[in-house]
Each structure stands twice: as C-alpha cells, then as structure tokens.
Amino acid sequence: xxxxxxxxxxxxxxxxxxxxxxxxxxxxxxxxxxxxxxxxxxxxxxxxxxxxxxxxxxxxxxxxxxxxxxxxxxxxxxxxxxxxxxxxxxxxxxxxxxxxxxxxxxxxxxxxxxxxxxxxxxxxxxxxxxxxxxxxxxxxxxxxxxxxxxxxxxxxxxxxxxxxxxxxxxxxxxxxxxxxxxxxxxxxxxxxxxxxxxxxxxxxxxxxxxxxxxxxxxxxxxxxxxxxxxxxxxxxxxxxxxxxxxxxxxxxxxxxxxxxxxxxxxxxxxxxxxxxxxxxxxxxxxxxxxxxxxxxxxxxxxxxxxxxxxxxxxxxxxxxxxxxxxxxxxxxxxxxxxxxxxxxxxxxxxxxxxxxxxxxxxxxxxxxxxxxxxxxxxxxxxxxxxx
Length: 387
Known about the structure:
With 387 residues, the chain is an alpha+beta fold. Helix content is 56%, strand content 15%.
C-alpha cells in the first residue's frame, strides 16, 4: 500500500490548494487561478467567467468541502467492527497473531473461509493506516458493500476517505499566509467518496475494477450536493493530480481499497440475510490445506510425555507442514502439472493418516508412540514439491 499512501499524501496537498483557491477566488486580479491554471485554464477547468459564476461556485464549493456523506454504523471502522474482524481472522488464518495487522502478514494461509462486512474491512484498513503513520493524514470513513444478490459475482463498493483538517492546515498557511490561517480556522475534515463496481478476474483470482460500470462516481462531501460544482472541483483535481479524467482519478482512489483486498487473499462475494460480504480463501488447494490444519496448529506441549528428542521431531514436523501449506496455497495443481494433483492428494492424505495413527498410539501408550511413519510421509510430500 506504499504507492497508495503516496498518492493520498499528494491528494491532501491538492485539497489544501483547492480550499485556498475556493476562498481566495478572484482576489488580486484572479492571481491564484491564473498562477496555477493559466489565463485559459481557469475558463477551461472551472468555467468561471464573471462574478456571479464565481460567487455561485465558491458557495457550492464550500458546501462540498464542509459536507459529509451519510454513513451507517455497519459501514464505519468502529471498535466493534475491528474486534469482530479480528475474531474472524483468528478463526480463519493459520498462526494469526492479534498483534500483527493483516496487511503486514506474508504468505497467509487460511484454515477456513474469512467473511468480512464492509465495516469490518474498513476497520482493518483504518488500523493499518494509523499504525503506519504517527499522525495519520487521512482515515477511512466507510466501506459499504453491495453484492449482487442474484449472481454474487460483483460488488458495488462505496469507499470514503476522510482527509483530516490538521493535514490541510499547514499547506494552507504556506500557500496563503494570513488568509490561509483564517480559512483553516473555519475548516472541517474533508470527505472524498469513490463508488465503483468490483468484479473478479477468474484467471488471477484478483479483484479488479469494472471499467464499464455506468454508475461509478467520485464526489466530495455530501452526495448530490451540487453536481455542477462537484464536477468543476473534480476537474481541477484531475488536472493537479495528473489523472487523465475523473474516472481515472476515481480508479486511483478506489485502488487503495482494491489493493487491500488483493493483499489479503483470493476474494469472492457473498450475500446472506441482507448482508453483503467479501469472502477470502487460499488461492489454491483449499480442501487439501484444510486436511492438514490440525498438524499445522498442534501444540507440542500437549505431548509432554514424549521423549525430548521426539518432541523436537514433532515440532519439526509442524514447521514442515506449515511450510508445505504455504506451497499448496501458492501452487495450482492439475493432471498436467509437476507434481500432479493426484500425487499431491495422495501424499496429503498419507500425512493425515500417519498423524492420526501417531496420535492414537500416543493416547494409548505415550512411550511407544513412533513418529517415523509421520516423518516419512511429510518428507514424501516435501519431495514432490522439490523434485
């Protein structure tokens, strides 16, 4: 998410500049507009040709900057949503550590599907932003999911970023001096909302933006709070941000969210009892991975009656199986691959059977439990991937 953070940092500076332009207007012979857009640029980008146009624009722009969209509690990054999300992570991810953010984990392996609501995902993204910045310049306002209930193959996502007032104050003062200080005193946080449809690329398993979605949108403040002023403002943002058009800028903003989805795992959509979910699983071989979860999460201390050497052997088996689960999650298997899917399935079921045999022997008489069969089965599975 590093690239996305850089883009949003630039966006904060741009919003600060825009606020200054809205407030300064045509003061000083249109100095600010001509300075940043050129004599023709102010007409082409803002379509302001007289004082009446200017006052109307400034009034609408003020409403855009100070307004905020309606956000339901279910879509907010609340503490409740964060706790529920972390419970889901604990129940779905092998070796999940509550102290580690989901976006900081590498080679994630799922032991069960992970279902997240928009608010829960918003809470996880917001926690990531906060953890990476001492004073976060922006935060997540909402993630609203609207999964197509008939097909469950697409999801309209409303993603709101809150650009914090304190992030804008200093750039304003630097750009406009005393006037900037006056403006900053009356400002509030700025809400920028992106609306896009997300679909799945079945070849890669990645979430992507549907470029053909007719109702995609990008707006400041409250929805439908003067669409003409919103378009004027966004046209300036497009130019200053270096985007090709409003849709391209919308894609840049929404990519923050899409990158977050793809960082977690292979996604799909679910609609259940009126609630929309994003569902995450391993990219490959879920069923085989689930067969070995018990070994991957075994507690060696539960086998204290084993000799110390055997306890170390069991710990080594656990480590090897965790490594193998990562290989399984990242490797697509078929009849034509090397190793073949059938060979891997046979080896996985052999590992599970040997583990169950070992556990039964341990429970009957710990001193006689033999790890040789389990070790050999794990080595055979490793050999398939190393050949």
